[in-house]
Every structure is written in C-alpha cells, then in structure tokens.
Amino acid sequence: MTQPNVLEAKNLMRSFGGGTGFFDRNKPVIHAINGVSFEIAEGETLGLVGESGSGKSTIGRAVLQLEKPDSGSVKFRGTELTTLSPPQLKPYRKHMQMIFQDPYSALNPRMKVGNFVAEPLVVHQVESGSALTDRVAELFQTVGLDPSFMSRYPHEFSGGQRQRINIARAIALNPAFIVADEPITALDVSIQAQIVNLFQDLQDQLGLAYLFIAHDLSMVRYLCSRVAVMLRGRIVELAPTEQIFADPRHPYTQSLLAAIPVPDPDRKHRPRIPFNVARNIPPRDAPMIEVSPGHYVLDQEIQ
Amino acid sequence: MKNLIKDLMRSKAGLIGAILLLLIVFVAVFAPFLDLPDPTRGDLRARLAGPTWDGLFSPGAHPLGTDEVGRDILSRMIHGSRVTLLVATTAVVLGGIVGTALGIWAGYKGGLVDRVLMRLVDIQLAIPLMLLALLVVAALGPSLRNVVLVLALTSWIRYARIIRAQVLSLREREFVQSAHAIGASTMRIMFFHILPNVLTPALVVGTLELARIIIMDSALSFLGLGVQPPTPSWGRMLADGRVYISSAWWTVTFPGLAIVLTVLSVNLFGDWLRDYFDPKTRNKK
Ligand SMILES: Nc1ncnc2c1ncn2[C@@H]1O[C@H](COP(=O)(O)OP(=O)(O)O)[C@@H](O)[C@H]1O
Ligand SMILES: [Mg+2]
Questions:
Q1: Which of A12, A124, B84, B277 is the most exposed place for a label (fewest CB within 10 A)?
Q2: Chain B residues 171-190 with a CB less than 8 Å from chain A
Q3: Beta-carbon separation of A123 and B192 below 8 A
Q4: Cα-flanking dihedrals φ and ψ of residue A242, to 5°?
Q5: In this model, does residue B285 exceed pLDDT 50?
Q6: How far apart, in whole angstroms, are the C-alpha atoms of residue B282 and residue B274?
Q7: ABC transporter domain spans which residues (chain A) (predicted)?
C-alpha cells in the first residue's frame, strides 16, 4: 500500500444559491461541499457514501473540473488542476473519466452507441479509420457487449447494457482514474452485482483507481479499500473498509451500518440506530482526528 | 419511419392534412407539365367569364373562370402556388437555420449572446410582425429575395426561443456533461450532442411557421409588396379581384380558397407532427 497518489483533493468548497440579483437575493446559500479533503492511491478504490443531497456528485464534478470548486485544491499526479484553463485541462481529461448514475440520461439518444464509445478516441485523435472501429469493437468485448451492437441507438438497450456502454466510453482512453457516481443505484438488483464485478475486473486489468460513490454501504464493502462517509457537505469519517464495518465511530456511520439489510436470520433484530440528520449539521471548522492509523473521524461527538 | 406512417394512418386530421398537402405540392411542382393556359396572357374577349364545365378539355376552357383581363384563374392559381410555396419554404428553412443556430448558441453558452438575443425577442414580440415586414419591404423594395428575407426575419425568433428553452434542459443532461468530461470542444458538443436532439422541435416549429408564413406572404402581395406582376400570386389575385367581388365572385373565391386549404392542410399536418413527437401526448395513446 505504498502506491503514490493519483489524486489529492484538499479543502474543497462549493456552495449554490444566495444570488446577488434582485430576485434571488433571499435564496439561502447551500454549502454543497464544505471543506472536503481526501486522496486516492494509484489503483485504489475509495468509497464515498452519504445520503442523497450530501454533496457526493458535487465532489465528483469538482474533482474532474466539470464544475470549478469555489476554493480548494485538486491535484492529479501532483499537478494542480483548479488553476488550469480548459485547453490546458484537455490532456488531463484523457486520464480521468466519469460514469454517471442514470444510464438513460447518460447516453445521447441521437448517437449510435458505437460512435458514442468512439468519441473520446476521436476527440483526442488517438485512433481513426478501421483502427478506430477495431478498438471500439475491442472495448465492447471488454465490457461484455456484442460488437455488432455498435450501430444501434441507445433506446434498444436495457439499463445494465447502457451502463456497460458508458463504462466502455469511460475506459476508451485507458484512464488512470474514474469517478463512478452511483453507477448501480438505478439498476435492477440482479444486474447490480454484474456491474460491480465488471468494475472489479477492469480494475485488475487496467490498474484503474476509482472514486466510487454510493448512497449506502452495502456494495461498497466488496469494492472499496477505504470508505469516506459524507454528511451534509462534510466527510465525517474516513477509514479502511474493515475499520468502518468493525469499529464505526461517528453516529452517522453507525446509523448507515445499521440500515444495511442482513441476510443472516440470527442477526435480523439488530436495533435500528436513529440519527437525525437535520439536527446534526457537521460544524464548519471541526477538525478530523486520527483515532487509529488511517482512521479519521470528525471531532464532533465521538462515541 | 414505419411507426410514423402507422400513426399518421390512425390520425384522421393528420392524414387529411398530409394528403391535401401532398396534392398541392404535387400540382405546384408539375405545373409546367400540365396543359394550362398561359397565366400571364389575357383574352379581352373573355374577361370576367364565369366558371364553366362546358368543353372542359377543349383548349380555351376556363373551368374556374377568368379575371378582369381575361386570364385563366385556375392557371394563375396553380402558378401562384409555385411562387407561394417557394417563398414560404425558403423563408421557413432560412429562418429555421438561423433561429436554431442562435437558439443553440444562446442556450448553451449563455452570457452576452443570450442576453442580447432575449432582448431582441422581447422587442420583436412588442412590434406587430406585419408592421415590421411592411417597413422592411418598403425600405428594401419588393422583390422575391427581399420578401423571403423579410419573412425569415419574422420567423427566426420563434425557433430561437423554443430551441433555447430545449437546450437549457439538454445541457444539464448527463451525456452533455460526459462529453465535457472527455474534453470535447464546445463546438463539438453543440454540433453532435445538442443539435441532433433539437431537430425534432425545430421541425415542428417549421411546419407551424409554414402556415403562418403562407398567410403573411399572401398579405404582403395583397398589399402590393410581394412578388411583382405579371408573376401570379394568391394575394395579388385577391387584391385585383376584390373590386369585382359582387359581380364576379370567382375572382376572389378561388384564390382565397387556395390559401385557406393550403394553410389548413399544413396546420393539420403540423398539429399531428407535434403530437407525435411530444412524449406527453404520445404516451396517452
Ligand atoms: N447546480 C446546482 N445548483 C443548485 N444547487 C445544487 C446544484 N448542484 C447541487 N446542488 C445542491 O447541492 C447539494 C448537494 O448535491 P449533490 O452533490 O447532487 O448531492 P448527492 O450527489 O450527494 O445527492 C444539494 O442540496 C443540491 O440541491
Ligand atoms: Mg448524486
């Protein structure tokens, strides 16, 4: 575990609302992310878990510079990205990709899926002509799709197939790092495990690092080496996965763990741990403290 | 395409519109091959002759009568349809291209272009289009080209407004963000990801605009600001014939009917097209 970091995010902030115009002056400011720091090693998977609206997607977009953070730093292999202009960013976009939650809205309904998967290769002028077609066919095979599907339009595919198409597009340029924003949430339960396995296979083959976003802890366990738990724009606990499951310190982490459905009948009657999110806004300046090696908790009300 | 035709067969109004429209276009396109009297040459011995079915197929028959200088009304109507359809479709396409391009640009890029465009829309909405058209034609002089330009000028804003609204929601879609994430240029995103997804609404606006523009073109030529004589046009025929409306009803009735039928068929077809592409009304079926 002494791999160098592929990505370092420090003290990211992003807020919405609170306009300066006449009509939106009284809109409340939402601190979507409020001082978030983490790093991801080459080939590692960091899980990012939190309820809907806690700021997970905003982090994903800020990390990939799809939306500039208000402040904070994002470094890819040591290069600061937040200060780069769009043309300066373009070469880095080869190495970082995103997979979206909604496989329906993620595909262009008017573009053949083969062209959609080929687009990154065209944009970065990596391949053209028959080499391009061959490469796209290879990518289809890699994600478990029949290459003959290339000339079809998205509406002919199921949710799981669409997510495979998105994954093929994301890995087309052999990236080092992928943000997967709840990539299985919208899929049938029966398909979810297949897609998780695909993520794992691709990581083994290509040495990818993931920021894997999820709204509960159940799938994270199988995929992630470390987990960050988010609450209202802040990371409240970050630890190796076994630590999170064995020794959760933050009450919100404990409530998330209690919410995981358990197949074991003996443990069915685990008490639910109530946690009132609305009354537990993490304080803006509370520091993270290291309770054991690699296990950080927001210094709030540790139990 | 198969679905399209199937759905059209089920819609009575849409089907009637489509058939009428096809018929009108067919006649207009093949007018030179129909054995019609010269629409510009009058026969003073036969001026203001009433419609008659006698000797329908003999040369010199005037099934829909003649006008005040003895020109054949049917022939003038058919040749007039060529001009009207040519002017209207060119204006619709021109306005559509400009309006769609500006709507995409304003919706996707926002900023100054968007603000200027929206102010222009406000201004144009406040000025009656007919007045605007009159002013411009009067200033530039009436000619086929100027009429097309003026009609396109009154039209592009309708496309721009609707396309812009579509783009505002499209650009939040994940595939657009995904294109951004792979490093696609703004031009590329607008051309490959936005444009193909607004072609359908543009087409729907186009058919509805076609009907409006046919009326406006007729109004312009009625006022003498359209294509110039001796080229026949529906509006001109109405203007020339209105003096004789009590004694020779056919001089205004038939060109009037032509305008009404054409606009009606375009509207029937356009309404069906809009419903077909509107997912909200479509799913109800
Ligand atoms: N473009 C935006 N404009 C205004 N508010 C936004 C925008 N994007 C996100 N937010 C707000 O930021 C908060 C975090 O959103 P998000 O990052 O999407 O959460 P998550 O992905 O965890 O569900 C939410 O309260 C959301 O309403
Ligand atoms: Mg989200």
A1: B277
A2: 173-175, 177-185, 188
A3: no
A4: -60, -40
A5: no
A6: 10
A7: 7-257
Between chain A and chain B, how many beta carbons pairs sit less than 8 Å apart?
60
Total Cβ atoms within 10 A of residue A268: 9
Report the C-alpha gap between A169 and A171 in whole angstroms. 6
> Which chain A residue lies closest to B173 (C-alpha atoms)?
A105
Which ligand 1 atom lies nearest to the CA of residue A230? 22
Residue at B26 is within a domain:
no
Q: Which residues pair with A290 in a beta bridge?
A: A296
Residue B179 domain-assigned? yes
> Interface pTM (ipTM) of the complex?
0.88
Spell out the domain ranges in chain A: 5-95+208-298
Q: How many domains does chain B have?
A: 1
Distance CA A51, CA A185 (A): 12
Nearest ligand 1 atom to the CA of A181 is 21
CA A32–ligand 1 middle distance (angstroms): 6
CATH T-level topology, domain A5-95+208-298: Rossmann fold (3.40.50)
pLDDT at B183: 94
Residues near B252 by beta carbon (within 8 Å), at least 6 away in sequence: B237, B238, B241, B242, B244, B245
Q: What is the pTM of this model?
A: 0.84
Candidates A107, A123, A169; nearest CB to B183: A123
| In the block, residue with structure tokens 């039928």 | B261
**Average pLDDT, integer, range A261-268:** 62
